[in-house]
Structure formats: structure tokens, C-alpha cells
Amino acid sequence: MGTLPGRLYLVPAPLDHGCAVQVPLSDSLPAGTLAVAARLDHWVCENAKSLRSLLKRVDALHPLGQPLQTQHIQELPREVHKKGDHHGQFDARPLLAPLTAGHDMGLASEAGMPAVADPGSSVVKAAHELGAEVIPLPGPVSVLLALAASGLNGQNFAFVGYLPQDPAERTRRLRELESLALKTGQTQLFIETPYRNAAIWASLLQTLQHNTRLSVASGLTLPGALCRTLTAKAWKPLPCPVDNSTPAVFGIGR
Amino acid sequence: MGTLPGRLYLVPAPLDHGCAVQVPLSDSLPAGTLAVAARLDHWVCENAKSLRSLLKRVDALHPLGQPLQTQHIQELPREVHKKGDHHGQFDARPLLAPLTAGHDMGLASEAGMPAVADPGSSVVKAAHELGAEVIPLPGPVSVLLALAASGLNGQNFAFVGYLPQDPAERTRRLRELESLALKTGQTQLFIETPYRNAAIWASLLQTLQHNTRLSVASGLTLPGALCRTLTAKAWKPLPCPVDNSTPAVFGIGR
Questions:
Q1: Domains identified in chain A, total number
Q2: pTM summary value
Q3: Contacts of B114 in chain A (CB under 8 A)
Q4: Contact: A30, B32; criterion CB under 8 Å
Q5: Which domain range does residue B215 map to?
């Protein structure tokens, strides 16, 4: 229970953002999540256009409580979602003013769960600072689906975001992550902007030890999803499994 | 695409296992996930009784393709789910023989996503070794809901499982996790068996620095859910927020 009249709901989005094919919303989001999304009319989001497009899809299954045109939608500032929302420097409390006025609010990113491998944590932090109740709704989380489907250790794992762009630094970082995974058994997960997929893949195969297990997942919950785990040695003779257009989650484990 | 005719589906379960109150399945599981669960009739699970009880609830929404009595249900050996399924020593390939015969199979744990903070990774590993396609289905994952709702850094985080039981070792481990969180900004998440909640809470408040942020979540997706993040200093004068009967997820961040 919070001390403010309004509650902050974390509303997950399907993982087909920016994809040619859309999947049925009901494949990714529980009816309960859809019902809450349809009822909310005050939002903070990564991108207003993407949120409106999501709400149109929700409306087709659960009619929205308020027409889209009258919804109160605020975007996170561009620098928060471009530079990462984890430095704790952005004060999101003003965005949450509607909570004080008794409105429930939704927080949404473009794909998956807000504040997990995605911006939004500054908004949740602000909600706690204000004493508001925070309610996360179930839905797809690409990093977690990738972890579960990898067969790598899911009882001790880390998600470390993006790797360095400089090739030498990237190799150094990969060595560090591999060493951690082999020594402690902690699975190391990371993502990359799609157009660097081929470069990161080459780095991985050059850097990892033969017996290190390497997983790659992309397009989970979508048609043609990829999810495969092999040793670095077994991957070597195979073509790069991801093209430069699809976001992928990579994992390293022993 | 796999090279075996059968596919392995990872089927999430709601988070109300063992709770007095059950929530509607449609609040936690997408219709698409329910439809696949209803269609499958070959299973590997943490606990057969819990799986049957879940399938009865699925049947009420999506009639099962095969009566419960004729479903082919195999349990993971007790030592795999008691001692943790992340040592890579258990060969689960024999459990997956139905894949070779062309049956799709489901993998389920008692609550949440199999193979994430729960046993099952040996089975997924075996599926990859056999060349089977692995398909993770969306649903609730307590650790991830807790992370999203904490407002702690969700762009760099680790889940480290259970803490040591010995008080001195536990304190040492907490110091290590706090130091990592403060130095690198990587949120550190862990769980505890419920009857140790009060002990771990006392350790946390004794060990953590004043300004370290500490989150606690329990009962997410259920009535009366708890999810709160404060500095260690702000927690000190408050009563322990979790009792000794509810599983909780703890998080440390800067």
C-alpha cells in the first residue's frame, strides 16, 4: 500500500516493436494485464507514438476506458532513454504528479518490461520516493526468456547491458565476463545494437575458450525465433546465426 | 528450428503456489501460453502434483487436449531441485525421449519460469544437446517483477540465488554484494527461504551502509503484494516488512 492515492503500474509491451510481423497481443500479455492497460489514462513512456500504437492494439481486445486522443501521455526525456536510465540523476517525480491527484498511472517502454534492460527505473525510483504503490504486471521480458531458453545457469546470472564499442576494449570485457562465468558459474548476459551483431559474434568466437558455452536468442515470442546454445568450438564452423537487423541477447556460461 | 521432430516449451506457472488465495490464471498467463499448455501432454516438472493442479486450472479456461489421467508426466529427480540445477552434472537427455518420438513437451516449475531462479536448466541444456527447438512462453517471473518494481538499476543487474546460512559468512557475502553494487552500479538480487526472512533482514540492516538502497518484494501478482525500496537508514526504524511465511526477493543498489 502506498501513501498516495494513485498507483504506478508497470505495463509490459509485446516484443514485436519495429518488426514486420505483429503477433497477437494475447500471445504475450495476460488478459489481466490488458484489462489494466485499457483502464489507465495517465502514462509515462519511452515513446508516445509506440505507446499509442500499443493502446490501439489493446483497444481491439479490451475497449479503452478513455479515447486515445484524451489520454495523458508523457515521454521520458530523450537523454534518459538514449544514455541509459541508471545513473540516478534524472528526477522523475514531476512526471508522477497525477498520482498525487488520485490518478493511477502506467509506465511502458517500447518492448518488454519497463525498467528491465530498458529505461524506466528513474520513474519507479521516483514513485518509491513519493511513497506510491508500484504494481508490476506480468508480460514478456526478452532477457529472461533468453536466459530460460539458453539452458545456462538460471540460479545465478547477470545482465550487463551493452559491451564497449571499441574492439580492443570489447575483447577485454568479453575476457572479463568469460572469466567470471567460468570461475563463479554466474551466467553473463548482454545485448548489442543489431547492426553490430556480426562484429560482436566475430569477437565472441575469437575470444572465448573452446568449451565455454555461448547462447544466442533473437525474435523470441515471434515467428522464426532463434534460440541456440553450443560451445564456442561447436559454433566456429557455423555461419553467424543473427543478421544485422534483429536485436539479440547473448549469454556466456560454463 | 530444431533437428528433432518434437519441441520443448518452457511453460511458466502463476506465483500463487502454496498460497492461501489463488489468483485467476488469466491475470498471470497470456491466452497463448494457456493454449499451448492445454495442448501438451508430455511434461517434465519440478513436482507432478503441482503440475496436475496447474493443469486442472488451465482446463477450466482451455480444455486439455488429453485427460489429466493419460498425461505423461516426469518429475525432475529430487536431488536436482533440492541442491540446485546449475552444476551441469545431471544428464536430463533420457527425460526428453518423447521429443525424438515426435511429441512436443512442456517444462514447468512450481511457480514462475522454469530454469530461472528455479530448477530446469539441465533439461533445457539437454534439449540443446539433442538439437531440439526450445520455445519459452511468456508469463510471470518473480525475480524480474521484483527488479522492475524496485526502481534499482535494471540495465545492469545480477541474481545470485541464496545467501550463506552461517551468520558470519552471510555478513561477509552481503558486504561483498554491497561493495559490487556500489562500485559498479550492478543491482544485486537474492532470495531466501521464508523462515529466514527475519534473520536476513536483521543482517541487512546491520551490514549495509546508510545510503545503500534496499528493496524487498513479496507476493507480487497476488493480493496484498509488497514492494518497497528505501535506503538502509530509512528502513532502520521500521518493522521488518516480511514475515517468515512468504518468499521474498531482496535487492541492493546504489
A1: 2
A2: 0.96
A3: 148
A4: no
A5: 142-253
